[in-house]
Design goal:
Blueprint: H1 3-23, H2 28-42, H3 46-74, H4 80-102, H5 109-129, H6 143-160, H7 165-175, H8 180-203, E1 215-216, E2 219-220, H9 221-242, H10 247-271
Antiparallel strand pairs: 1-2
Helix pairs in contact: 1-2, 1-3, 1-9, 2-3, 3-8, 3-9, 4-6, 4-8, 5-7, 5-10, 6-7, 7-8
């Protein structure tokens, strides 16, 4: 890659990190298209490309999610009990699905695009159709509800590489009726726990070939390092702005970002 490639990765990674803090989504909706392009440019292809996208996206999300969650903690908007209730079942399903994906060639790039696009479409429709959640009018969700959300989010995390925030945030706000700022905080706390578990697994895995001397397992550090560095600056900024922004604006930004990525994925599907 050239110097300007790293600059582009850093700029787009900054945007993804900012969204991670603002929306509680981990940044995967931006990281995945970036990784798709630059991993292919570096020589990753075929079935390994999907595994590389998933692995590197989730490894980057370890940092964007952790920084965002720490900022939430410092601001007094942190909910450890709900985070663990959601994360524990999800870590199990995320690792299980990651193992199944790595064990065969059944999950190729075409299948990944359809899963990714389908998820984004459902999420965007829900975000547009659902109205504002009124704080204090709904009972606190139970541990089982948080655990069930985490269980299925772990599956989606392994299949999509998104970190789970684009699933958890709509479920928390639209189904469990949690105010979006609290929902984003819980999501930001769960996301790095998913990503750490899968990231450790991916570091120890052995890919069929390497595209860089700075590659460990499926993790290609020259590609993800600019995004990781950006997370330390822009993820906390996103959290800070989220606390000063209305719920309706956050929901609109969320839907717009998902819509833009969906257009990109659909273009790739139909172009083939």
């Amino acid at each position: 890659m050239e110097i300007y490639d790293y600059l582009i990765i850093a700029i787009l990674g900054s945007f993804g990190a900012f969204l991670s803090g603002l929306l509680g989504v981990g940044g995967g909706i931006i990281f995945i298209p970036v990784l798709d392009h630059f991993l292919k440019k570096c020589g990753m292809h075929d079935d390994m490309l999907v595994k590389g996208i998933l692995a590197n996206s989730l490894f980057t999300i370890i940092f964007s999610g952790s920084v965002s969650s720490y900022k939430q903690y410092k601001m007094g908007n942190f909910f450890p009990k709900q985070i663990w209730q959601t994360a524990l079942p999800g870590v199990f399903t995320a690792i299980l699905l990651t193992y199944l994906i790595k064990s065969g060639n059944w999950y190729n790039k075409g299948t990944f695009n359809y899963v990714f696009a389908g998820m984004l479409l459902v999420i965007m429709i829900r975000m547009f159709l659902k109205g504002k959640t009124t704080p204090g009018t709904w009972p606190e969700p139970t541990a089982r509800q948080f655990g069930t959300t985490g269980f299925f989010t772990g599956i989606i995390t392994a299949l999509s590489g998104l970190g789970g925030g684009v699933v958890m945030t709509p479920v928390f706000t639209d189904v469990l009726k949690i105010p979006i700022k609290k929902a984003s905080s819980i999501s930001n706390g769960v996301i790095p726990l998913f990503a750490i578990a899968i990231g450790i697994y991916n570091l120890g895995d052995t890919p069929p070939y390497k595209i860089s001397e700075w590659q460990v397992g499926y993790i290609v550090f020259p590609v993800i390092l600019p995004m990781i560095l950006a997370a330390f600056i822009f993820a906390p900024l996103g959290v800070k702005i989220a606390q000063q922004t209305t719920q309706s604006i956050i929901r609109l930004i969320f839907a717009m970002m998902v819509g833009l990525v969906l257009i990109k994925v659909l273009y790739e599907i139909f172009a083939k």
